[in-house]
Amino acid sequence: MDKRVKNLTLVSLFIALVVIGSRIYVGSHDSFRFHLGNGMCLLAAYVLSPLYGGLASGLGSMIFDILFYPSGLGCLVTFATKFVMGYVAGVAFKKTKSVILGGILGEVAYIILYGLKTYIERRFIMSMAFEAVLPILLAKLGASVINAIAAVAISSIAYQVIKRIKI
C-alpha cells in the first residue's frame, strides 16, 4: 500500500475516533465533563507520527466543536491546543518509548494552553476581575487533571492492544 494512502487513512480513522471519543462523556459541557476524546488524541500520537498524531487530535477536536458546540473561531483554538497535545505526546513517546511519559507531557502541554485560553477569555475578553477568574481556573484545572489521568490510562491500555496489530 502506498505510504501516503496509508497515512491519510490512519489520520482519518483517528480523526473519527477523536470525534466519537469526545462525544462519549459524563457530565455537562458547562461544568465537569469527563470524556474519551483526549485518550483518543494520545492514542493517535502513539500510533502515528507526532505531526500526524497532532493533526488527527486537532482536526478531530475541531470537528467535534463545529458539530456540537459551534462558537465561531473557538474551534481554531481547540485545533491548536489539541494539536499541541498530540504533537508533544508523539514527540515524547518517540524519544522515550513510554506511553505514560508521552501522555503526561502531552496532557500537561494541553492543560497549560487550556488554562491560558480560559484566563485570556475570561479576564480580557469578558473583562472579569482576577478574583472571579481564579475559581474558574481552579475548577477547570481539577476537571482537566482528572480527564488527563483517565486519558493516559485509557490510551496506554489501548496502545498495548493496538501495537500487537501490524498497522
Q: How many domains in all?
A: 1
Overall pLDDT score: 94
> Structural class of the helix and strand makeup?
mainly alpha
Order of helices and strands: HEEHHHHH
Largest sheet: 2 strands, antiparallel
Rounded to the nearest angstrom, the distance between the terminal CA atoms is: 11 Å
CATH structural architecture: Orthogonal Bundle
The proportion of residues in beta strands is: under 5%
Task: Return the CATH class.
Answer: Mainly Alpha
How many helices in DSSP terms?
A: 6
What coarse outline follows from CA principal-axis ratios?
Answer: globular
* CATH topology-level name: Arp2/3 complex 21 kDa subunit ARPC3
Key traits:
single chain; about 170 residues; mainly alpha; Arp2/3 complex 21 kDa subunit ARPC3; two-stranded antiparallel ribbon; 6 helices; 2 strands
Overall description:
By secondary structure, the protein is mostly helical. The chain contains six helices and two strands. It has helices at 3-23, 37-47, 50-68, 74-96, 99-125, 130-162; strands at 25-27, 33-35. It has a two-stranded antiparallel sheet. Helix 2 (37-47) crosses helix 6. The longest helix is centred in the C-terminal third of the chain and has 33 residues, at 130-162. The model has no long low-confidence stretch (mean pLDDT 94).
